């Protein structure tokens, strides 16, 4: 499940993952917020992942489609997690993502929010 984070700085869309991500999570929560941010000019994305139980096939497809549709709008992505494999993969392959990508541990969530907003 993905839920929107409230009280984000201007221009930042933020989400927190709890468990497994479904295609409906993307359709109902993520895509509308990112589409609005892209229309405004750029996407600054904060994703907080305390625990991760995987993604449905439909969610993977939505994720790939979402990135491609707004390719030029991505400015910054901050991943906030203590899930080691996510941190390592993002550090290794973040250069392939549009915009800047940076990983922060959960304890530095406020720093991640400030970075993605700057």
UniProtKB/TrEMBL annotation:
Organism annotation: Streptomyces omiyaensis
InterPro entries reported for this sequence: SpoIIAA-like, SpoIIAA-like_sf, STAS_dom_sf
Name listed for the protein in its UniProt record: STAS/SEC14 domain-containing protein
Coiled coil: none
